[in-house]
Amino acid sequence: MSEVISPLDKPRRRRRYIAAAFVAASVMIATVPARAEPEWEIAFYDDVRIEVIAEGRGPLIVLLPSRGRGAEDFDGVAGELVKAGFRVLRPQPRGAALSLGPMQNLTLHDLARDVAAVIRNAGGGGPAIIVGHAFGSWVARMTAIDHPDLVRGVVMAAAAAKTYPAGFNGAKELSEAVRKSGDFALPDSERLGYLRLAFFAPNNDAKIWLQGWHPAADEVQLAAGRATKQSEWWSGGTVPLLDLQGALDPFKPRAMSNEMREEFGERVSVVVIPNASHALLPEQPGAVTDAIVAWIGKLPR
């Protein structure tokens, strides 16, 4: 089921309306009209409620943000995908915005089930292309494995290397930088240093990511990732994969640029975006969108 919320409502009214929907005995599926402004839906199953930013009409694309981040990271990309003729859904992860559900003892299989519910509740347009940013690519690949009938292909945006090459000593430093980038107890000046180290290429504006962090979501996702073996999700099943990389991404050393294609062959396409690091989406939204649309255009129908 899905609940459609008019974008004309003020945010406070929208939240009261959605809260009331949580206790409703049943919710009717409403058709989302085609228009430029996004709308908000709630996807329901069991005791899980996932808030979804929905817009556009056409083939379905689902956008999953990176660990601890919200769906707003895709603002620039989502608008361009809508213009290109797609129905774009941006689910908020558990612990962000109005997305609710059990927060303990989860694996990537649970988070993939959230995505599957969003696709099923979309009311048509599937199977979906799933675009997963960084950690979101883990969830996207897990969804393709657990729910293959719902997934047409996966875009791995700024996905980290499988392992770091011998002699690389920066993995621990990068992990620490990710954690401290979203630590609101630290001064902004210190957090900016971590954001520039882990996420943003030189001369790109790291200040735009001082906000947008969701500590509860980050905790859930970190634990779920650790509770799931990499071998369970790494392959992404059998669907086509686009490995979309930032040329300056420290999580994907250039020596590892072709690792997915070397492992999985012609199923994998690789596109490297100049002047971009691990954040990628806000750094080069136009190039990201162009690469995604061009790749989808080459997929078998």
Short description:
By secondary structure, the protein is of the alpha/beta class. The chain is built from 10 helices and 9 strands.
What is the strand and helix layout of this fold?
Blueprint: E1 2-5, H1 11-22, E2 39-45, E3 48-55, E4 60-64, H2 75-83, E5 87-91, H3 108-120, E6 128-133, H4 135-146, E7 151-157, H5 171-181, H6 188-198, H7 215-226, H8 230-233, E8 241-246, H9 259-264, E9 268-273, H10 285-297
Parallel strand pairs: 4-5, 4-6, 6-7, 7-8, 8-9
Antiparallel strand pairs: 1-2, 2-3, 3-5
Helix pairs in contact: 2-10, 3-4, 5-6
Task: Please provide a written account of the structure.
There is one protein chain. By secondary structure, the protein is an alpha/beta fold. The protein has a single domain, classed as 3-Layer(aba) Sandwich (Rossmann fold). The chain contains ten helices and nine strands. The chain has a nine-stranded mixed sheet, sandwiched between helices. Strand 2 and strand 3 (48-55) form a beta hairpin. Helix 2 crosses helix 10, helix 3 packs across helix 4 (135-146) and helix 5 (171-181) packs across helix 6. The longest helix is centred in the middle third of the chain and has 13 residues, at 108-120. It starts with a strand and ends with a helix. The model is unreliable at 1-35 (pLDDT under 50).
